[in-house]
TrEMBL record:
Residues 1-64 form the Laminin G domain. It comes from Bracon brevicornis. InterPro entries: ConA-like_dom_sf, Laminin_G. This is Laminin G domain-containing protein. SUPFAM superfamilies: Concanavalin A-like lectins/glucanases.
Amino acid sequence: PDLFAFEILDGHLYLHIDLGSGHLKVRASKRRVDNGTWHDVSLRRVDRNGRVTVNGETIDFNTP
């Protein structure tokens, strides 16, 4: 089964993805998200290309 998961590690948001061909870990936030406030997060994937946006800052990624 496919896996999409978010985690907060050392104050930053990380995205974990496994679509069956290998695990990918992406640091999704440029700034810390452990400051006690709400954050806007979106994830978009088309085929093997993806984009995660945290508070308006976008990171593009490609899955294996």
